[in-house]
Structures are given as structure tokens and as C-alpha cells.
Amino acid sequence: MNKILIIDDDFAVQTSLQLLLQQAGFQVKTCDSPAAARELIPAYKPTLIILDLNFSIETSGEEGMKALKMLRSEFPEVLIILLTGWGTINLAVEGMKLGAKDFLTKPWKNDHLLQSIRTILDLEEKTERVSTRKKLDQKFDFEHIVGEDPKLLSILETIGRVAPTDAPVLITGESGTGKELIAEAIHQNSKRRIRPFVKVNLGGISATLFESELFGHVRGAFTDAKSDRIGRFELANRGTLFLDEIGDLDLSSQVKLLRVLQDRTFEPLGSSKSKTVDVRVICATNRNLEEMVSQGTFREDLFYRINLISVKLPALRERPIDIASLATYFVDNLKVIYERPQLKISSKALQWLQTLVLPGNIRQLKNLVEKTILLSPNDQLEITDFQKNITQTNTAPKSALPEVGTLTLEEMELLMIRKAMSFHQNNISRVARSLGITRFALYRRLEKFGIPYSEE
Asked: Could you tell me which residue ranges the Sigma-54 factor interaction domain spans (predicted)?
């Protein structure tokens, strides 16, 4: 049984927390000062300490910070969660830097506190290390993640370990490295797998629409709000919310996001009624958030809230041995979609693909393979089939148009619609607006190209 020590000078807080944690199956002791804790810890040997930052002799939190430094110095193996008020959150962030595992604000929510404790304890448990892809696949569901590079296997081992917990995960890496696939794998291997997995591209949401998109709105909240709308947090309740491109979020929206991550409550736009959610949050970005924190463009407290577990994905050039497997995987999928069952890549072409730099990573490789399949009449793809498309793929700026003759107008139209549907997450109104056509014109094209969609 895990032992917990509560350090708080408020007897009511001690009693409340002790009762809650004992009912949850923990062994609990309390004390009212860091000095008393120092005497108690050697004999009691707690696994985890809940430490208040404010004591009766002062309210700045400095005494709590001194206690944290003492505990980390003298009892480094003990896990620590900080209790703080909103006024001392900056101090709590400093505490995270000193080794605290989490910080919670008063008044705390019982479910949130228990979830935090269990997550931290689960992450500390030692697990058997598995070093081969075969063993990983026997233990976890990584069906859509291709590769056997040691860097990738280390990442899969990490996410397999943290997936069953509710730990927030930050996934970083260059564009096209597969951050969304990793987020989906975490959800698929979690206890929430039968619940919703909701994706949000924060880079595509303006500051004015942020609250409506994430928290929902009620009818009449603004001019075009003709009916109530459920936000992404509520849609993801009891499941996982994937916040992609979190580095693109403006500072005012960061504050609103931090509030809901901290309290697990929010108010739909235009409503005064609070709602509570149980959501596991996974974030991703291709930006350097630590650098943004130092520049003042990303909140430090939000960074520590989303960054309990950090996973950095390697660029494809750092795992070239996986290029052949990925290319073969794409061909096997695309030959079914395009009804060309004899399609394959020659061994020489696979070896040649491994020599490419591919700055766009996995996404660029997939686009290259798909374009080559579309434009090549051959069932066996050779080096020359790929070379016809690689120059433009590697060197053209993002805004450049394809050269004349490489795509028909119909192929270009199909490509742009697919990109717009992916970017705007199948939101018909936004896709139509971004393409400069009406919704009805977009519906006709979706039906023409056989692109699936759902009514809003």
C-alpha cells in the first residue's frame, strides 16, 4: 500500500484530504509543518507528499518553497505534489523546476487530485524494458506506426508505458514526423480507448473563435450563434483531447486553456453555468516551447501543465532505415485505394529512396509515393518513376504551384479539396470558405470525387 504524507497547517484540510485518500485505499498521515515532517519521514517512509505552499506565518509561499527544497535535498526519492492558490501559481511552477511532480490549486477537486496521485504513482512503477518491435507489438497496439529504428522503438516503449496513465503528454518534432499517429497510439493503448479521441488543430483557430470551438457556446452568444454548440472539451469528455500546434496559441487563449486544464471546469461562451469534464490532454507542436517561454510568447505555467511527459519524434533523416518500410506500407495501402493490386516498389528504388533528405519527413514521403503511383502507368515502380517527381517535391517552396503538365486541373482540384478538408477537419463551411466556393458547390465536388463527409 502506498503511503502518503500531508503537510498543511490547516486542520480542516488535513482531515478532508486524509478521509478522501484513506477511502481511496492509501495509508495516510498528516502534520502541520515542514519541521514536523522532517521528524516523521524517516520512520514513516512515505511514497508521496502533498505539500501546501502557504503556512500560517506567511502567505507568500516562500516557506513552502523552503520546505520543498529541504525535502528534495534530504528525501530525494519521495514524490511531491504542491497545493497552491492561483495567486502563487508562478511559485508552483518554480517548484516544478525544483522537482515537484504536479501542482493543484485550492479548492481542489477530489477526482482531479486522485487522478494526479495515481498517474504519478503509475509512472514511477518500474516496467520490463522491451527492445524489439515484435515484443512491443505483442504488448501494445501500434498497428499504424511503421518502423524498427532504435529511436522509434524507444519512443514506442515510452508511450506504451505512459498510455494507461492519465499523464499529459507533449509531443514535439518537425512537421510530418507523425505526431498525430503517436497521439492516437497513446489513446488506443489507454484505459480511455473506447471513449472519444477528439482532434483540434489550434493553428487553424483564430483567437476570436477559440472559446466557441473548445468550450462551445449557447444560442445568442454572438451574432451567428443561432443554436447551442458543444465544444471540443465536452465532446472529449472521459476520452482524449489532442491539441495540435499548441505553439500557435496566442497568450490570451493560453490563459483560458490553462484554467480548464487546472480546474477541469469551463463555461460555454454566453453561459454562466460551469461544466466539469474528465479529459486526458495530449499536445503537439513543431515549435520550441522552451525557447518561446524564455521569449515570453508561451506561458511557463501552461508549459509545465502539459509537459509531464515529453516525447520528441526524430526526423525521417535520423531514421533512414525505416524509409523502405514506410514506402512499402504506403504502396500496400494505396494499391487497394487505386485498385492496382500488382503495384510494388523495386528493391533498387527502395534503396534509392533511403538516400533522400526528405525535409517534409513522413508526410513528404507519402505524398511522393502517392503522386508517383498516380502518374506512373507501371506496376513496378522504379527509380526513374520517382525521379520525375522528386525535384519539385524537394526544392519547390510551399507556396509554389506544380509545373505545367505534372497535374491536370481535375487532379489539382482534388488535391486542394483533400488538403482543405484535412486542414479544417471536415468542417464544410470553413472548407468552402477557404476554397472560395459555396457549400453547395463543395458538396457537388465531394460527391464527384467520392470524398466522404458528414453533415454539420
From this structure: 145-374
